Amino acid sequence: MVLVRWGGGWGRLAARVALAALQDLLATGHRAWCEGVADVQSGIRREAANLSDAQLAERCSAAGAPWEEGMTRREAVSALAFATWDAAPAAMAYTELAERAALFGVCLLGEELL
């Protein structure tokens, strides 16, 4: 268990409260992350509908998600959407939050699943 300094003393209850708050923040962030990636996917799909394969390939390459041989157009659009979302400040903030939470043993999976 992690102990945090709370009100001039060390307390297990305070640590539990802090970790529960961190888990709640992580869960809220995850919901926002899912909504954000869905919005980006929807927007990229709309934009890609008007692009030729060559234009889409250029866009994918520029985003760091090249349209690799054997990928379908749909897979390329999905890769573009994820690359675009991963570069968004909100996605980067959530990733940082999740990484920091993990340092305290906090994740979205319950212990029974780990």
Q: What is the topological layout?
A:
Layout: E1 4-6, E2 9-11, H1 12-49, H2 53-62, H3 73-86, H4 89-103
Helix pairs in contact: 1-3, 1-4, 2-3
Summary of the model, kept short:
This protein has 114 residues and is mainly α. It contains 4 helices and 2 strands.
Main sheet strand line-up: 1-2
Q: How many individual β-strands? A: 2
Specify the overall morphology.
elongated
List the uncertain runs: none
Strand content: 5-15%
Sheet with the most strands, sense and barrel status? 2 strands, antiparallel
Please name the defining characteristics of this protein:
114 residues; mainly alpha; two-stranded antiparallel ribbon; 4 helices; 5% strand
What report would you give on this structure?
- The structure is a single chain.
- The protein is mainly alpha-helical.
- Helix content is 68%, strand content 5%.
- The protein is built from 4 helices and 2 strands; from the N terminus they run ββαααα.
- It has a two-stranded antiparallel ribbon with strand order 1-2.
- Helix 1 (12-49) crosses helix 3 (73-86), helix 1 (12-49) packs antiparallel against helix 4 and helix 2 (53-62) packs parallel to helix 3.
- The chain is elongated.
- It starts with a strand and ends in an 11-residue tail after the last helix.
- The mean pLDDT is 87.
